[in-house]
Amino acid sequence: EIPAIDEDEEAAFASELAALVPKGASKVFVAGATGQTGRRIVLELRRRQVAVRAGVRDVKKAQSLGLAVSTPGTSAGPVELVNFDVTSDQAALIEAIGDADAIICATGFTPTLQNLGGLKPGAANAVDRLGTINLVAAAKSAGVNQFVLVTSLLTNAVDAGQGDNQNYKVLNAFGGVLDAKHDAELNLRASGLTYTIVRPGGLSNEPPSGELIVSGEDTLFGTDDESGREISRDQVAEICVEALFQGAADNKVIEIVSSPTAPELDRGAWFDI
Fold this sequence. Notes:
Oligomer: single chain
Number of strands: 10
Strand content: 15-25%
Largest sheet: 8 strands, mixed
Order of helices and strands: HEHEHEHEHEHHEEEEHE
Distance between the termini: 39 Å
Helix content: 25-40%
Radius of gyration: 19 Å
Shape: globular
Strand order of the largest sheet: 3-2-1-4-5-6-10-8
């Protein structure tokens, strides 16, 4: 006699199975594609055979970086380069997104010696708060299904009881950048879009020197007693792209660093937090 199927167990199994099925995206719009993290995201998408629409402020610069060149061994064609400025109006943002069905946003305010306003309160507002909020609105209008946002550890420091954390104070001194990212995160979470928010530790341009550590939101604060404080941008790019393929990444906030003493973390468990 065939045993009766427990409906609750069947539903739970179906949910677990769905989380393991790669969902991917047919075309991904990368915001900030010529940045140090953005260009790595483009390369990782190409490696995963995903068509890319790269939003760049300077098309010639992007061409000089080789972003539009077809990647050997892929079948997705060359990267589409489109003019993009996250501070543009809605019509321009929607046009830049085009027919992409997912977005990875790696934009960010960068203070320089020529940009003395970077130390003024609210200087990051136009890019990291309003810019991202407007991009989310444009994504909804353009019919985007999924939005991956790169922010930072300590974005939620004040609400997490870390307002006196020296790392937060130092980072946020640059134009209130963490507070701006915090508002952008809250907006994305309330938008109705399927999202993944990636909060990396200190970003390194060097290749990975340790294993990936993935933790839940408001659990890593860059303190001396934690096993890792930095992470290679290569690893950030990998996890951003992987979020498009794993249902387990949907509607989650993850915090990531790396450490040479950490055990190897299986890719399939990256979002099991």
